[in-house]
Amino acid sequence: MIRFFHIILFCSLFSVFSLVQAQERPFADHEEFQTAVDLFKQGQYWSAYQLFNSFGAAQPPSFIQLVASYSLLCEIALGDPAVEYKAAQWEQEYPSAPLKHTVYFKLGNYYADKGRFKEALEVYEKVKPERLPVADRAAFLFRNGYAGMQNGEINKAMALFLDTEQAPGKDIYKWGARYYRGYLYYARGDFEQAVPLLEQLTDIPQYAELSQTYLLQSLFYLHQYEQVIQTGVPLYKHADRALRTTLAKTLSEAYFALNRTEEARTFFDDYLEGVTTLTITDRYYSGILYFKLKDYVQAAEQLALVGERHDSIGQNALYHLGETYIRLHNKVDALEAFKKASSMPFDPVIKEDAFFNYAKLSFDLNSDIQILAAYRKEYPESPKLDEIQNYMAANYFLNQDYAMAVEALSGLKNPSKENIRDLEKAAYLRGIQLYKTGSFREAEKFFDQAGETYWVAECQYRSNKFQKSILLWKEFIKESGSFSNPEKYRTSHYNIAYAYFKQKEYALAEEWFHKYIRLGKGDIHLIADTYLRLGDCSFAQYAHQQATVEYRNALDHHTASPDYALYQIAMAQGVLSKDPEKIRTLDQLMKDYPGSAFYSAALFEQGRTYIQTNQYEKAEERFSAILSFASHSAFHAKALVELGLIRINTHKPDQALDYYKEVLQRFPDSPEAVNALAGIENVYLARNDSKGFFEYLESLGIDSGKSPGEKEMLVFSSAEQVYLNHSYAAAVTALNNFIKDYPESTKIPAAYFYLGESYSQLGKMQLAADAYLVVMKRPSGSYTELATKHYAAIQYELEQYANAVDAYMSLSSIAIIENNKLEALKGLMWSFYKNKQYRNALVQSDKVIENKSFDHQTTTDATYIKAKSHLALGERTDARVLLEELAREAHTAAGAEASYLLCKDAFDQGDFDTAETMIYNFADSNTPQEYWIARAFILLGDIFAERSEWVQAKATFESIKNGYKAENPDDIEQLVTLRLKKCEEKLQ
Predict the structure, then answer these.
(1) Number of domain units in the chain
(2) Whole-Å CA distances, 616 to 404, 579, 622
(3) What is the 8-class DSSP label of residue 968?
(4) What is the pLDDT of residues 637-685, one digit of tens each?
(5) What is the CATH number of the domain that holds 569?
């Protein structure tokens, strides 16, 4: 650009002479003046200057002004350092001097040549173009425009360049003005305006090279790539090295835009040969070009360098670096690249998409949904939300994490019908999972979400909400009919009957049990149980004869409780005064089922029946047998009372007194103690020895009457004794009655604790937790500590991990017993982890590891949780160290999983060779952990698939399918089946 400007400047030096000739005509006869003018015209400014300054002052004013103007022009041309001062003095002395506009023009050029464009423009403003020679006007307009351009006054410059083209004068100014107009349009991105101007200059030697360069780039920016190639390739072939390098890059980018990447690479390689260093944009372009050429290693190398910048090009490079790592199967580094790109604000579109990919990879690698939550908060209207929610749901389904699948599907903004079906399915499956753990209340919520009326009712029944369950089952029967769900339809009748039975509405229960029987073929176990409960209903309604029929039916249908059926038949026979039959039935029970829980009761009932039939010797044999074995301890007090009764009936009151006193001595708080005391009183009164009776009472430390407090304690002690005798169902009834009758008793915490223990033994964990929670809210020393411990354990087992966290934290603050303190530490660690509170899990794991009271297994568990927590938080380096430690014990479940996770870590980084070697080494470790070996070989199949080795992948998956035998239900079959399906599709 400067070279062309000098050409124009040289030409402009001669344009002043036309004006000079006009100004000098009046003094044509002045020989010395003409000589000076001739020297000036010849560019001999110093000689001319000396002659102009030799004229004396005795000249006409007009001559003096003309000479002064020539003298100043010479000084300007000579670059006199004082020219600015002299020009100001000249301007002051000769305001109307001839050649004034020419002097201003040349003075402006003087400033412009020194780069002082602002001052040049100020001087140019004094020039009136019409007072300049016609031939000089184009030069002035051009020079003025150029100075304006350099001073940033682009619009003014553009107007002056346009005036230059339209002014008369030499073409060189017009070409120059056109070039700069084209360049300025190009520089401000108005390529459509630039192209036609630059096209006119490609054959003008002074402007050909640069105009061609800017023309090609303008065409490129106008997306006229074919024209760039058609125009540029011929120029490229004949260009010198410098221009060839410039053209090579433009042509490379044009070919790239047309997706002709091989040609793009050829020209870019030529460009690289012509440059010594690469600019940031060069590295960015090379990274993108290598990416398109699938040379991902080189692409990653270049893009990583550009990605270090915190600007728009750095953000763009990081985004494409993430895509590059994905192609390299390195999800770990891809996540980091997308994470960085998403944190930069320069390009909102890239920021959003990078954030999306970051969230997706965080879930893929770490099962981390926190990033997705942040993405959802940042872009609540993003259409991609549903895409990732569906993706997550599918993954959760595959891993049988139905709770998270429900959460993912519930988060869909625009769910499809299929999504709704999947949501209902996930909710149902999660409900089943919770139901199996005994977490019926939580399961009910999921069943309700799934629209599973039958199962909602089932959960309400299990939570003792019998009336609600009845209403729902009736609704289910009405809506489903007998055809859509025949099994559940039949079972609902049975369930309704049982719910009525639980509420002691025996007539209604009997009605619905009969309805169930009339429905025909059903579950043989339920049929048998139905007859058993029909027997109970008849018995409760005093229809004892019918009860025996139903119990016999239950036995005929092979009831699971034949000993109970026989016992109840015997009880009914006793009521019906069929004592011989009762005794024979009880004999059958004890003979056929010697380990029965009803054996002791059968012995006792036989003894009572013998008393009623005056067969005291046989009765005494039965009661003595009860007292002989600790297994009958629940009936010891009863047997002693009955033995006392036998002695009364056989007129041996002293011996009876001994039996009664033994009851009071051994079982003072049992219900039988009351009967024994009554028996003692009768013996003393029969002797007419009331004084002896009161003395006996005094020796026991009791009054003849019971205060309310004593009665309360007696009721509690009785219920407590039932619990201590391991009669948990009876204990539940007794304890609930005590709680109902004495709600303000000081024994309430103990009663609730025993109630919780009884429910636990009966497998009713949710009700047990309710009881323990009452104890926790009413502090009572050791009961509170134990209740908190059991409550926490139950909440953990019921998968209510947030509740477990709270409970274990409470236990850690109140525990006095050392083992309970340790249990709190360990339980809190697991609960934090299961509740996905990974930072807290890390802290708690360290506490467990640092505590030397824990055994090796517990510290190993802590290391395992710590490693998995680091993984979940994306802290792979920290996790890897811990996994390597665990993997040394590959024979254990934690060690085998650690070995697998290390293989998976290499796989996630795209290092398939290392992962493959690690898998084979793991398989050779002879670990008994077959599940993790199977998972490792599934990963091996995935490696083959990633390499597109589909035959080998299929063979690997088939070997797992045929060779792996699960001890318990797991996900291996599902994982393999999905992969085999994909292999089949690829091999078709």
Answers:
(1) 6
(2) 69, 14, 10
(3) S
(4) 999 999 999 999 999 999 999 999 999 888 887 778 888 888 988 988 8
(5) 1.25.40.10
